[in-house]
Design goal:
By secondary structure, the protein is an all-alpha fold. Helix content is about 75%, strand content about 0%. The radius of gyration is 26 Å and the shape is rod-shaped.
Amino acid sequence: MIDYFALALGHGLIAIALLRLVLREGLDADPLIGSITSEAADNRKATSVAGRNEARRAKGSDAGDPDDPRAQAANR
């Protein structure tokens, strides 16, 4: 009889732990999905060669070197 109780107690606690994990709010929320989705939307918007080049310039100027003449020309 005690064997059945021990098995039921162990399995019950595991089931409760799994339910608590599955019902967590942050389980399905991946912060990278938003950035990937917005990047894909920006890439879709830039369908022409000029649009793609503009997007690359804008992306590069954010992390560019301030002494770079191209970055200075883009900031004017």
